[in-house]
Write a structure and sequence with these properties.
The strands form four sheets. The chain has an eight-stranded mixed β-sheet with strand order 5-4-13-14-15-12-17-16, with helices on both faces. Strands 7-2-1-11-19-18 form a six-stranded mixed β-sheet, with helices on one face. Strands 8-9-10 form a three-stranded antiparallel β-sheet. A hairpin with a 5-residue loop joins strand 4 and strand 5. The protein is an alpha/beta fold. This is BA75_00006T0.
Length: 435
C-alpha cells in the first residue's frame, strides 16, 4: 500500500452535535479546529432563539474561551463592577455585605469572573461558528449506538450517521434520558428573571454597582448590571409545586409575576422593591434536576456535555463553566489521540475514539462528582444549621462561618486536569504500517 492510497482511504471523522445552545456553539467552534473532521450541529428550533437571562462567566470558563475566541472582543459585553468581578452576598434585610467571592489577585483581569446577558454572548459565539455548520429544525428523537458509529433519528427529517455524537441538548436531553430513563423533577424553587435597559434604574440611589445576592435561607435575590447598558434581576423563590406547574421555561408571567415578587420580598432590603417597581415584567423558570451522569460516554461513540451530562438548574451559577470545560476536555482528548505518524507524514488524521473518550471521561467525571457533592453539602448546611439559628446575630455568625470558598471550582483548570490524566495513563504508541 502506498502513502497516497492510504490517504485516500482515510475519511474525515464525522462529528454530530445535538443542540446549538451556548455549549453546543462552543463545541462547534472547538471541534471544527481538529484535523480531518466533518462537524455539524443539529438544533431543534427553526432559527436562533433570543431568550434567557444573565450568564456568569467564571475564571475557568474564560480560560477556555480565550483559547477559542478573541478574549479582548469578549470584554465588550462583560460586566465586573466595583468588586472587579467579585460576587457579593448581602444580608437579606439590611443589605450589609456578608461575604465577597473575589477572583484571584494574580488572574489576568480579562479572565476574572464576570457577568453578561445570554443573548449577546450567544451571538458572539455564533460569530465564531463556521458558516453552515448549524442545521435548524432538527429535533433528535432517538439515537442508536453501534461499534461502527451512531445513527440519529430526527422528527420529520432524514436520519444521519456519525462516527461521534456529542449530546449538548440541555437539561431535558432526550439522548440522556434514552440511556438513563431518568425523569426531570422540580427542585422546589422557581427562578424569576429579567434583563432590561439599565436606564430604568438610574434614579435609584445607593444601588450597588456590582453583582449582589441578598440571601435568606433558600430564597435569594440577585441584582447586577450586565454590560451593553443592560441590567439583570434573578429571584429564586421556594414556591410550592402547584405554582411552579403553571409555568414553562422562560414563560412571561407579566404583572402577576412582578407583584408576586414584591409581596414575597416586601420585608427585605427596601432597595429590592425599588427595583421591582420599575422592572417592566418578569419571566419564570421552574428549577428542575435529574441524576448526574457518573460516566459521560456511551460505547466509545457518544459524549455528553453541559446540562445534558449534569442536569441541574442554577448550580452555583456556573453552568456555562461546566459545559465549556466539558467541551475543552473533549477537544483535547481527540487532539491527543491523533497518531503522530499521521501528523508527521502529512496523512489525514485518524482518531482512536476508545482512548479519546476514556481521557475525556477521566478528565471530567472526578471534578463534576466533587461539584455534585458540594451542592448536597451546601443544601444540608442551610437546612440543618443556618436556617435553625435562633436570632439574627446567630444567623449572621453561622452564615459567615460556613460560607464555602469556591475558588477550587471557579478557577478549575481543565487543561491541567487533562494533562494530569494523560500523565497518569502514560504514553500511548500506535504503529502505522505502510507497505
Amino acid at each position: 500500500m502506498t502513502i497516497t492510497e492510504y490517504s485516500n482511504n482515510s475519511k474525515p471523522l464525522k462529528i454530530a452535535i445535538i443542540g446549538a445552545g451556548l455549549v453546543g456553539a462552543v463545541a462547534g467552534i472547538a471541534l471544527s479546529k481538529l484535523s480531518n473532521v466533518n462537524v455539524t450541529i443539529y438544533e431543534r428550533s427553526e432559527k436562533p432563539r433570543e431568550v434567557g437571562a444573565w450568564i456568569g462567566l467564571t475564571e475557568s470558563s474564560l480560560q477556555v474561551l480565550r483559547k477559542l475566541v478573541d478574549i479582548d472582543e469578549l470584554q465588550k459585553i462583560l460586566f465586573r463592577g466595583d468588586q472587579d468581578g467579585g460576587y457579593v452576598k448581602r444580608h437579606w434585610k439590611t443589605g450589609e455585605i456578608l461575604a465577597v467571592n473575589l477572583s484571584s489577585t494574580t488572574t489576568d483581569r480579562r479572565l476574572k469572573q464576570a457577568r453578561t446577558h445570554r443573548v449577546p454572548l450567544h451571538n458572539f459565539l455564533f460569530s465564531y461558528v463556521p458558516e453552515g455548520l448549524i442545521k435548524y429544525g432538527y429535533s433528535a428523537n432517538k439515537v442508536n449506538v453501534t461499534k461502527d458509529g451512531v445513527d440519529v433519528i430526527f422528527e420529520e427529517k432524514d436520519p444521519i450517521h456519525a462516527d461521534l455524537l456529542v449530546a449538548a441538548d440541555g437539561i431535558y436531553s432526550r439522548t440522556r434520558r434514552q440511556f438513563t430513563g431518568d425523569t426531570v423533577q422540580y427542585k422546589g424553587a422557581v427562578a424569576y428573571r429579567n434583563v432590561f435597559p439599565i436606564e430604568l434604574i438610574k434614579d435609584i440611589p445607593s444601588l450597588p454597582n456590582d453583582t449582589s445576592a441578598w440571601v435568606k435561607d433558600g430564597d435569594i435575590m440577585f441584582f447586577s448590571p450586565l454590560g451593553l447598558d443592560q441590567y439583570g434581576v434573578v429571584a429564586l423563590v421556594f414556591d410550592p409545586e402547584d405554582v411552579a406547574k403553571k409555568f414553562i421555561w422562560n414563560e412571561n408571567t407579566g404583572e402577576w409575576g412582578r407583584e408576586h415578587l414584591r409581596k414575597h420580598f416586601a420585608d427585605w432590603d427596601p432597595i429590592i422593591d425599588k427595583v421591582l417597581k420599575v422592572m417592566p415584567d418578569i419571566t419564570s423558570f421552574p428549577l428542575e434536576t435529574a441524576p448526574w451522569l457518573k460516566d459521560l460516554t456511551v460505547g466509545n461513540r457518544l459524549a455528553f456535555v453541559g446540562d445534558a451530562a449534569h442536569p441541574t438548574s442554577g448550580a452555583f451559577g456556573a453552568g456555562a463553566q461546566f459545559g465549556f470545560g466539558d467541551v475543552w476536555a473533549l477537544y483535547r482528548s481527540l487532539q491527543e489521540t491523533v497518531s503522530n505518524a499521521y501528523v508527521d507524514t502529512g496523512l489525514p488524521a485518524e482518531y482512536d475514539l476508545h482512548r479519546a473518550l476514556f481521557l475525556f471521561n477521566e478528565t471530567r467525571r472526578h471534578f463534576l462528582a466533587r461539584v455534585e457533592k458540594q451542592l448536597g453539602y451546601d443544601a444540608d448546611t442551610y437546612k440543618r444549621y443556618i436556617s435553625t439559628a435562633r436570632n439574627d446575630k446567630e444567623w449572621r455568625a453561622r452564615f459567615r462561618q460556613v460560607e464555602s470558598p469556591l475558588e477550587w471550582m471557579r478557577e478549575n483548570n481543565v487543561e491541567a486536569d487533562f494533562q494530569r490524566v494523560v500523565d497518569e495513563q502514560g504514553p500511548f504508541l500506535r504503529t502505522i504500517y505502510i507497505d
